[in-house]
Structures are given as C-alpha cells and as structure tokens.
Request: fold
Amino acid sequence: MKNLDNTTHDDPTPDLAQTALRKRRRILGAAAGGMGVLLSVQARTALGTGVCKSPSAMISGNTSPRPGDPQACSGGRSPGFWKQPQKFQYWSGAGATPPTFNVPVEACASGLGNIGKSNIQTPGTLVSTVLPGANVSASTGIWEVLAFPTSFTAGQLMRHLIAAWLNAGTFPDYPLTRNQILDMWNAVSIGGLYCPSNMSCGTNGMSADDVVAYIEGMYDINAELEQDICKKNP
Reply:
C-alpha cells in the first residue's frame, strides 16, 4: 500500500457536514440485506486496515469473505488532498497532469487571498478525459472541479469521482477500478442507478448520493485539516 504524506480532508461547513451525515444515516439505515447494510460493512472495513469490498461484492451480500479473499486496502485520498499544489508531485503517478498558475502559490495559514479560477494558466488533465459528457467547458481541468465544485452542475459528484479516479491510478489496492468509476458516472449522471455489469440490482442500485457517500466513506479518517490555497505574498 502506498503511503502519501499528510492526508487531508475538506473541513466542511456545519450545513454540509449535517447533509453528509443525513445521507450516511439514510444509507446505513436501510433494511437488513439491502444496500444500506452492505454499505455499512464497507464503511467500517475500508476506513481502517480491514477488508475492501467492491460494489458487486456488497450488492451481492458477500459480507463474509472466504479465507484468502480479504486484503488490506487503501481508502485513498480526499479531494482536499489532491487539489493542493504541494501534492501535485503525486499526480504523475496517477497518470494525471496538474494545472499551472499565473501566480506563485503556497499553503495559506493566514488568509492571504485564495487562488481563483482566473489564476489557472493551463488546466492540466481535462474533465472530459475522466468523466465524458460532463456539463463543463472543453477546457475545464479536473483540478478546477476538485477546487471549485459548487461552480458546476453535479460538482460534488464529479469531485468525488475525480478523487476516486486519481486514487485508482495511484493505489493498487484501491477497491474501485477506473472502469467501475466510469460506469458509475455514466449511470448516475443521468439520474439512474449504478449496478455492476455482471449483476441485476433492481432497486438496490446506487444513486448519485450513494456513490458520493460510498467513495467519501473510504477516505482516511486520520486526516489533518486542509489548509487553504493562497496567492503567495510578493
């Protein structure tokens, strides 16, 4: 398992935190044997050194793996980790290109002024290469969505799927493949439910909210608060 230093998360506002909590409670409170119970197992195991389960394993009810099936897994890094310029060194390992800026940037500890969209000089890896058909301009890079999700339709969904895409390219033991991430996007971005191609899920498929909660629930819980990205003082 790869070890990337200084895992970071977003520090959500109380409203966003409560919304996320309500989503998790709704998912984890579903009837026994349904998606909620299976996601609960995933949440408990993937956050630590437990067993990773793919969506198909969860939906099928395979909550007690056979001997030899369990593997230590990486829950990956959060969007707040991947958007930091000081973590751009890890993008190449994921097969991604970070953006460049028209101003120097540094970690912000005292409110020196956040980097804005106008400071993006080159976009890096484009959203269209990761999430085809996304409602963004052709020149929008994945970093812009990681940094400014509220500027886009389905921004939070795209943000977490992009983080998952980077994680899948970085960690061999991440429980989602890029093909699965693309399948999730293709299904839920049009209002449908995600179901693995080798299964018939009925109403137990994953909605957009379920996909976000599933991916978000795997991020390392031992995280420092994220520092803002700031323009560097001249």
Q: What stands out?
A: Residues 1-234 form one domain. Confidence is low (pLDDT under 50) at residues 11-51, 63-70, 221-225.
